[in-house]
Write a structure and sequence with these properties.
By secondary structure, the protein is of the alpha+beta class. It folds into two domains: 187 residues, Fructose-1,6-Bisphosphatase, Chain A, domain 1 (2-Layer Sandwich); 121 residues, 3-Layer(aba) Sandwich (D-Maltodextrin-Binding Protein, domain 2). It is built from eight helices and 15 strands. Bound molecules: 1,6-di-O-phosphono-beta-D-fructofuranose and magnesium ion (2 copies). The site of 1,6-di-O-phosphono-beta-D-fructofuranose has 12 residues, from strand 5. Keywords: Carbohydrate metabolism, Cytoplasm, Hydrolase, Magnesium, Metal-binding.
Length: 351
């Protein structure tokens, strides 16, 4: 019997599979009559740094750049050597690129003011996400958000340039250093993914117009903290089990998010007794992925309201995150609403 080879239906795709990231960015820019090209260049700068971090990640075990750096960051978390290296690589690329005036990074206590009079953009970045997974060879990532500064270009940076809600992002993306390395981004016109071909040193369009399934059967939450979850969430998790959903949790937000974006599912990092505001950071983790989720037709909340509408009040602010397939995020929210007590049914008090 002859085997029928799988061939994707490419008739609805606007760009050929295999278009390079550079070319894609250029073609996209041409679609917007007044685009100046600076945002395009900024995306290229990020892609370049991602290639370098990809190389460092791949050789971490050989080049003595795995393991702890020996210091803690502003959130009191132990920095890994690769956290520091990735931070240097991305901030260097953004500084040299010339389009950025300020950077907020997980690894820096304060805003990095680049003193760049012509920089129009502010970038918030988690240079290396899931860093506890580096030394055990499990997928890690980078997450970035891009904002246009709101005060006049050339004037000193002001807090309102930095503390913008996620609904003001002009672009956001992530890099997944996984079984292959991918860059996924949005500029508010859908979501596209590019796979890195290391021998050619290029990202190629592989996932055009990504669409999040509106339903799914994967739930991703650190169930080790179950006894610290509020009652409504405990009930939602039991509902997932009753429905025989699959539990999948890598412990790298980018990887967990990416899987659920492709397959359908929900990722939850809720408030716990240990972390009453959750663990994830609004500015450089939740906002970017929420923008991407919405652009792909998914949803992101803090369990109650839209992540992208949260007005930040602190640079390293944390937020609970419920993100992924729209119907699943809605359903989880309904469980929280139905049982609004913050007391766990089994276990301890959350607040
Ligand atoms: O171990 P936990 O508490 O489940 O936390 C896992 C979460 O923490 C993070 O690792 C935080 O990211 P960083 O590595 O950038 O600090 C997320 O990627 C991940 O989803
Ligand atoms: Mg992170
Ligand atoms: Mg990090």
């Amino acid at each position: 019997m002859k085997t029928k080879l799988y061939s994707p239906n490419t008739s609805s795709l606007a760009y050929p599979v295999g278009t390079t990231l550079d070319r894609f960015i250029k073609l996209k820019q041409e679609e917007f009559q007044f685009a100046s090209g600076e945002l395009s260049q900024l995306l290229r700068d990020i892609a370049l740094a991602a290639k370098i971090v990809n190389r460092e990640t791949n050789r971490a075990g050989l080049a003595n750049i795995g393991g702890a750096f020996g210091q803690t960051n502003v959130q009191g978390e132990e920095q890994q050597k690769l956290d520091v290296i990735a931070n240097i690589r991305f901030t260097r690329a953004l500084t040299k690129g010339g389009e950025v005036c300020a950077i907020v990074s997980e690894e820096d206590d304060e805003v990095i003011d680049l003193q760049n009079g012509s920089g129009k953009y502010v970038v918030a970045i988690d240079p290396l996400d899931g860093s506890s997974n580096i030394d055990v060879n499990i997928s890690i990532g980078t997450i970035f958000s891009i904002y246009r500064r709101v005060t006049p270009i050339g004037s000193p940076i002001q807090p309102e340039d930095i503390m913008q809600p996620g609904n003001q992002q002009v672009a956001a993306g992530y890099v997944l250093y996984g079984s292959s390395t991918m860059l996924v981004y949005t500029t508010g016109h859908g979501v596209n993914g590019f796979t890195y071909e290391p021998s050619l040193g290029e990202f190629f369009l592989s996932h055009q117009n990504m669409v999040a399934p509106s339903d799914g059967n994967i739930y991703s939450v650190n169930e080790g903290s179950y006894y610290q979850f509020e009652a409504g969430l405990q009930e939602y998790i039991e509902h997932c089990k009753a429905k025989l959903y699959s539990a999948r949790y890598i412990g790298s937000l980018v990887a967990d998010f990416h899987r659920n974006l492709l397959k359908g599912g929900i990722y939850i990092y809720p408030a716990t007794q240990k972390s009453p505001k959750g663990k994830l950071r609004l500015l450089y983790e939740a906002n970017a992925l929420s923008f991407i989720a919405e652009q792909a037709g998914g949803k992101a909340t803090d369990g109650h309201g839209r992540i992208l509408d949260i007005q930040p009040t602190a640079l390293h602010q944390r937020t609970p995150l419920f993100i992924g397939s729209k119907n699943m995020v809605d359903e989880a929210g309904n469980f929280l609403k139905k049982n609004a007590t913050t007391v766990a049914r089994k276990g301890v008090l959350v607040q």
